[in-house]
């Protein structure tokens, strides 16, 4: 593995920093997604900044307060806010109000299904809207911590205290509950639909093999895991939360059970955000000291995208083709890299 000396970036590692188009978004950024080849930088409050390939920035007001959650399918962004509204933004910059919580509760989780269905939550209640059917809702025992649609079929994972509920909105059958003590926040299905993984409130992940509900404990993190990303093809799950990128293997029927994770791109800073390339075995990692590295998964080779010495990286995202990487730090300093 290429060792990385934070004191002398230029001599020790291949760099593409001179190819980055710097952007000043002018607001703290919580996420970045691509709508076609436009990068959409989602602010912590009120606005989304749309940036085209030429670097031209246009601000769109989407909420009248904090933006608490966002999901994207490449055609639209769907966001929830502390104004109790669920809002969609499309490639043209047009805004659609999808829902308003009747009690004006915070909408703090959102998920999108490839067929266009949308799920969101407020308090203990999860909602699903699919096609022209009326909205369906499901209440779990405690505040919803995360939402994810299964890649096949209309099934929603609802993370909460002491486990995850698997709900089929179009079926009368009882929901399944996967139990594990503690507070479950982020939740993801593996792309092959065989595993479910949650990020815990404690510094750990927990997983289940869906065929038999067998548990998978993924521990040893010094900090909470706030970012997870599946590699192209779903063979590995990249995670933040340590001073290296932790990659859990999911290629076999047992997933990571009994296996050690790979540890890539060690730095004297905590990994804050990870984003795997959509088509190749490459990932981008953003760190708490502002560094961004691109890392090749098969041999750990690193390329420097952004030097350290600034605010923590808060957002990373690839376009669908994997030809553009967008990033932002907590202070609104951002950039676009064309590969």
From TrEMBL:
GO cellular component, as recorded: intraciliary transport particle A
Organism from which the protein derives: Bradyrhizobium canariense
Localization annotation: Cell projection, Cilium
Major localisation: other
Domain Anaphase-promoting complex subunit 4-like WD40 stretches: 278-337
Keyword Repeat belongs to the record: yes
Protein name, UniProt field: WD-40 repeat-containing protein
Keywords: Cell projection, Cilium, Repeat, WD repeat
InterPro entries: Apc4-like_WD40_dom, Ift122/121, Quinoprotein_ADH-like_sf, WD40/YVTN_repeat-like_dom_sf, WD40_rpt
Signal peptide from the UniProt entry: none
